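In response to a reviewer's request, we include the raw inputs and outputs for one of the modeled complexes. The two entities were modeled together in a single run.
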Amino acid sequence: MKKTLLLSLGLLAVASVASAAPQVFDFKDPKGVNNAVFKLDAPLEAITGSANGISGSISFDPENPGATTGKIVIAAASLIVPNPIMKDHLQGEQWMNVAKHKEITFEAKSLSNVKTSGYTTSASVTGTLTIKGVAKETTIPVRFTYLKDKLGQRVPNMKGDLLVLRANFQIKRTDFDINPKAPQDKASDTIDLALSIAGAAPTK
Amino acid sequence: MKPLRLLALLVALCAIVVWLAAGANRGWTKTIVETRTQDPVTGIDGITYEKRFVPGLDFLGASMIGAALLAGVSLFLPAPPNNKINT
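The model returned the following structure tokens for the whole complex.
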């Protein structure tokens, strides 16, 4: 009787430790919904576009969101604007030079100001943002929403959890050598970025 | 001369009608149009693009310049010979 009780307690302890382990969420979305939107709002012209070639993974522990780490990658060639000439310019050598710099990456290193309410965690994520080969230490306000057991609702025949990540922040075009000579009354130096992505952690 | 001016007027009118019919877009011409659909599980607005031509102010401007050039050229063309026979 005593042995059974001890064994049960041991199994319970192992199970609780296992459930507290960080989960790895894959952000390559099979539904293609993940996107990053950018906007340059200059006095003479507003340019808006998006990118949907998003991949990467994040290690997230719902019990300890402050320990989150990971890397998000955006395929530079997926950057798009509705005007075809503008798209060619955007992907060209002076602007994003996507033929040479194929990826835009953000590698999260540490979290601060972590606040969790229910399944939502907001935090300032510090990491390395690399655009056009220029890497800069950047802090981004991020909101994580942990959706337990919701993967099956999104992808049939799969079980697991989802992690939704939303971030709105600004960068300076000239900081990343994105056509620094472009007149700022036509192409704003400030780029507004909005990231809305979901990652999946299937259960095995 | 006269047919060229009429053609210029036609080009200008067609451009205006096409621009107005496509929604009088005051931005640049678009060849794709964004559609947003919300994912019911994650709440993320998914962005898809549909191929559609939406003329902008650049299309209107280029058409007006084209029409003005046609009208301008017509001023330099010699007048057609008068076919009336004086009796």
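As requested, we also summarize the result in words. Strands of chain B lie at 30-38, 45-54. The helical segments of chain B are 2-21, 57-76.
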